[in-house]
Structure formats: structure tokens, C-alpha cells
Write a structure and sequence with these properties.
Oligomer: single chain
Mean pLDDT: 84
Low-confidence stretches: none
Number of strands: 0
Number of domains: 1
Largest sheet: none
């Protein structure tokens, strides 16, 4: 169904099911959560649980995100935007 990387696979799959139930999930969300998994796998390969550092690193605005919307689109699937 989803191609995740990192120790977060079971958590991500549960989170998606939770968000899909009321219709709060779309294709862009699938991409962004996969990218978050890659972020965790690349920078925290030995981790066994989600940390604040992981979330903060993902949430930081990137240099290429010149517009507020591009940053919001990337992180929105993790909140109730």
C-alpha cells in the first residue's frame, strides 16, 4: 500500500488509517509522510522511537520553501490543517 522507510512503518500505517476514516487524507499526504519516513531513516537510522528532534527537523522551513504554502503543504498531513 505505502512504501515507507524507517522504524515508524507501523505507526505511519495506523496514522494514515486514522486520518482516512473521516476523509482527511490525500495523495499529497502520502508523498509527505513517505518523505518524513525517509528523513527519519536517513538522519536517525538507529532510532527506535519518534523524538522531538525528528519532528522539529522535519518541521523546519527549508531554504527552497520560499512561500508559506510550500512549507505548510509539506507538514500539513501531520496536523489538522
Amino acid at each position: 500500500m505505502h512504501e515507507f522507510e524507517s522504524f515508524l512503518v507501523p505507526v505511519m500505517e495506523s496514522f494514515i488509517a486514522y486520518r482516512q476514516a473521516p476523509g482527511h487524507w490525500n495523495d499529497a499526504d502520502n508523498l509527505n509522510i513517505r518523505l518524513f519516513g525517509r528523513h527519519c531513516a536517513a538522519l536517525f537510522s538507529g532510532a527506535a522511537e519518534l523524538t522531538q528532534e525528528m519532528a522539529d527537523g522535519w518541521h523546519r522551513r527549508r531554504n527552497a520553501e520560499l512561500l508559506s504554502n510550500s512549507h505548510r503543504e509539506r507538514i500539513c498531513c501531520f496536523s489538522l490543517c
